[in-house]
Amino acid sequence: MRPATADDIPAVEKMILARSGWLEECGLPSWRENAAELARQAENPDDDVWVLAEDEGRVVGCTTVQEQTPPWGWTEEELNEPAHYLYTTVTDPAYRAMKPGTAMALWAVDRAAQQGRTWVRRGCHFPRLVRYYETQGFALVHEVQRTRTKVYLMGRRAERVTDLEERFRALAG
User: Fold this and answer.
1) Closest alpha carbon to 111 in 67, 170, 153, 70
2) What does pTM read for this prediction?
3) How many CB atoms lie within 10 A of CB 17?
4) How far apart are CA 134 and CA 148, in angstroms?
């Protein structure tokens, strides 16, 4: 995992388009129309966009890690807890069997613990994603109606992940 740069934009866009094709094949909404805009976030000067890249540089995944939980949907007490919030996590479907999304989520959980955070939080719009994130140790905390869509808000306690290096090596191997 490393901070994304402007040089990553073409690779991130290619990966988002590959994921979009996979989502469409599964009958799910995709990011195809917003792929270029999402990829441009790689040059975010706040260094909150991260990529999972192979040693040769191929981008396998990306995620955004923000220092604050969005204010809607969480209680005041929850908002006062130190947490990282994951946005727009995308992985290359060609690596699906190696679970890069899980490796990135566990990296975020470990990183949050190292930085003294209590939680890693994320949100999604689909029950199928809720089930997937539950396999990564996240729990559904709130369901919130946002304009025309329901958002499922999830959280997992930050903790050190002892087998993280092994998981990343497995992705490379």
Assistant:
1) 67
2) 0.90
3) 16
4) 24
Share of the chain above pLDDT 90, in %: 58
CB 68 within 8 A of CB 46: no
Taken in order 4, 7, 9, 14, is the CA torsion positive or negative? negative
Q: In terms of Cα–Cα distance, which of 93, 113, 4, 99 is closest to 49?
A: 4
Start-to-end C-alpha separation, the chain: 16
> CB within 8 A of 126, min separation 6: which ones?
28, 152
Which of 31, 46, 49, 38 has the alpha carbon at shortest distance from 108? 49
Residue 50 predicted with pLDDT over 90: yes
Q: Please state, as a whole number, how many other Cβ atoms lie within 10 Å of the Cβ of residue 29.
A: 11
Confidence of residue 153 (pLDDT cuts 50, 70, 90): very high
Confidence band of 46 (pLDDT split at 50, 70, 90): confident
Q: Do 85 and 70 form a contact (C-beta atoms < 8 A)? A: yes
